[in-house]
Amino acid sequence: MTFSKERPFVLVGAGKMGGAMLSGWMAEGIDPASILIVDPFLSPEIGALLKKHGIGHAAQMPDDVVSGIILVAVKPQMMDDVLPGLVSACDASTLILSVAAGTPVRKFQKFFGDIPTARCMPNTPAMVKRGITAVYPTEKVTDEQKNTISQLLSAVGKVVWLDSEDQIDLVTGVSGSGPAYVFYMTETLKEAGTAAGLPEELAEQLAIATVCGAGELMHQSGEDPAILRKNVTSPNGTTAAALDVLMSERGIQPIMTEAVAAAVKRAKELAG
Ligand SMILES: NC(=O)C1=CN([C@@H]2O[C@H](COP(=O)(O)OP(=O)(O)OC[C@H]3O[C@@H](n4cnc5c(N)ncnc54)[C@H](OP(=O)(O)O)[C@@H]3O)[C@@H](O)[C@H]2O)C=CC1
Ligand SMILES: O=C(O)[C@@H]1CCC=N1
Question: What region does 13 belong to: left with phi over 0, alpha with psi -120 to 50, or beta?
């Protein structure tokens, strides 16, 4: 990793997403001395992580210019409060990298002018190095900076590059928010098992192991999910009976399409 005290990396907002990435970076062995966390309200878990690795922390952004990356990971609704406090730390040697849903490049330009800026959309599996992050760099972002972004984000999972800012909202609806859909599906599978008569604890164990196992199988085999589904589905068997319900007109596909569209719509609203 190319970060150092001379080329620092500052994380503004170590909440759910920033904290997940930070945990992933620590597990990956990134030099804690190159990182500064700026967040006035640390959770006990993140406080313990900082202490364990000796990571620097400040409640507010120091005035010194950051000739490296400032990763902005605060809520979109906080931007107007937080960004003015970063202005004195930015010049043309600073790269602003935002993980915020909705918040457009023009919002950063309003505060920082035309400095190198990139938006990205990670997801919380970054915490276990199984995230996927889509990145949209503005034209000001140099190849060297793209390389640094790649190093940083690939340390916590896959990285894909976007050629249009509009795509970020769509990515948000699929993979940014997506882990929550999978967790919710796991909850519903557990509840369905309980409703069918299984003890709650056993239903939960079965649901979690099934979702993790199916995910790992998709990951390791690299096989098309439709093929993996067919492999489970014996003709006229139990899975076919269940899939008749899940794949019906009132099944998962129309609901998922509606859910992703709702997330995309909300991302556009957050742009303000
Ligand atoms: N959660 C997710 O799965 C994903 C989130 N994102 C994006 O990541 C961003 C953060 O979301 P998330 O992590 O969920 O939200 P959190 O609220 O968990 O994290 C934001 C963090 O910023 C802190 N904070 C508040 N004010 C300041 C300040 N002035 N300076 C620095 N830090 C401050 C918050 O403290 P406090 O909590 O005390 O207010 C909190 O620790 C959002 O823009 C979101 O769109 C993107 C992809 C996935
Ligand atoms: O719910 C949100 O707005 C954020 C963005 C993607 C995931 N969490």
Answer: left
- With a 6 Å cutoff on the Cβ, whether 177 touches ligand 2 is yes
Is this prediction's ipTM beyond 0.90? yes
The confidence band for 29, taking pLDDT boundaries of 50, 70 and 90, is confident
Q: How far is the CA of 101 from the centre of ligand 2 (A)?
A: 6
* CATH number of the 9-166 domain: 3.40.50.720
Proximal ligand: closest to the CA of 15: 1
Q: What CATH superfamily classification does 178-270 receive?
A: ProC C-terminal domain-like (1.10.3730.10)
Q: Is 17 in the pocket of ligand 1 (CB under 6 A)?
A: yes
176 lines ligand 2 (CB under 6 A): yes
What distance, in Å, lies between the first and last C-alpha atoms of the chain? 36
Burial label, 24 (beta-carbon count in 10 A; 0-12, 13-18, 19+) = buried
pTM of the model: 0.95
Q: Could you tell which of 79, 98, 177, 183 is best to mutate to test the pocket of ligand 2, judged by most ligand atoms within 8 Å of the CB?
A: 177
